[in-house]
Design brief:
Elements (H helix, E strand, L loop, with lengths): L7 E3 L4 E6 L7 E4 L6 E5 L16 E9 L4 E11 L4 H5 L12 E6 L8 E2 L1 E5 L7 E9 L5 E16 L5 E7 L9 E5 L5 E3 L1 E2 L2 E8 L5 E8 L12
Parallel strand pairs: 2-12, 6-9
Antiparallel strand pairs: 1-2, 3-4, 4-16, 5-6, 5-11, 7-8, 7-10, 10-17, 11-12, 11-16, 13-14, 13-17, 15-16
């Protein structure tokens, strides 16, 4: 059974949400990889849904990078789409200063629609299902020899409503079966590897080495429905 969370303020995005959130605990299982990188699956099991879901137009995912050797991780970077005017300006928030050492972080660098800089969240405005969305982000660490895992948590579907003060608010529900997931791909920009975000209904986990660098570039892509293969991204 899903446990209903108390109403809370998601300070990182400035979005008020209330929702259901099963445990994000994951077990990673290594599978095939290339160039010293491997992909694994998040084995989190969510409750089965008996009703078909509409394709979300308001949603976000949370990116998670970890360095197991130092027992450090970063899990507060979020990307998403909102059917809301000025979504980029309202909900794309700057990153904090980077620590001097022993850190790992994920940031969006110079996203469109806001001033140049590093950001922790990047929400884009929903237009229609035939519009492509791309989020460029960087995984960075002070350890140029680190072995890193990159995964994601979500998808968090946001259902909008107006509160008694006429402010936009959202109910949040986590779903790994929403049709919007079929449009998603992760791209390792440095190697060209294209990583499908799901295997079955489980999130994949991407393993990679920093290979002497302190930053590594990725893109999260939402493929338009008109360019989507039959059955979605495979």
């Amino acid at each position: 059974m899903l446990k209903i969370k108390e109403f809370f303020y998601l300070s990182i995005t400035g979005v008020f949400i209330i929702g259901c959130n099963p445990s994000d605990t994951a077990t990673e299982i290594a599978v095939a990889g290339t160039n010293g990188q491997t992909i694994a699956e998040d084995t989190t099991v969510l409750p089965k849904r008996t009703l078909s879901e509409e394709k979300a137009t308001n949603w976000y995912v949370r990116l998670v990078a970890s360095d197991a050797s130092k027992d450090i991780s970063s899990g507060d970077t979020m990307l998403g789409v909102l059917d809301e005017e000025n979504a980029v300006q309202k909900h794309t928030l700057e990153a904090s200063a980077t620590p001097a050492n022993d850190y790992i972080d994920i940031i969006f660098r110079d996203p469109a629609g806001v001033a140049a800089g590093d950001y922790k969240t990047n929400f884009q405005q929903y237009i229609d299902n035939n519009s492509e969305h791309r989020w460029s982000f960087v995984v960075k660490t002070d350890d140029s020899n680190a072995q890193i895992t990159l995964t994601w948590r979500g998808i968090y579907v946001l259902n909008p409503y107006m509160d008694d003060q006429d402010r936009q608010r959202y109910n949040e529900t986590r779903s790994m079966t929403n049709p919007v997931i079929k449009n998603m791909q992760l791209i390792d920009v440095d190697t060209g590897n294209v990583i499908n975000t799901l295997s079955g209904n489980k999130a994949k986990v991407y393993y990679f080495s920093m290979n002497g660098q302190t930053e590594k570039r990725f893109e999260w892509v939402m493929i338009p429905d008109s360019a989507l293969p039959v059955g979605g991204v495979k």
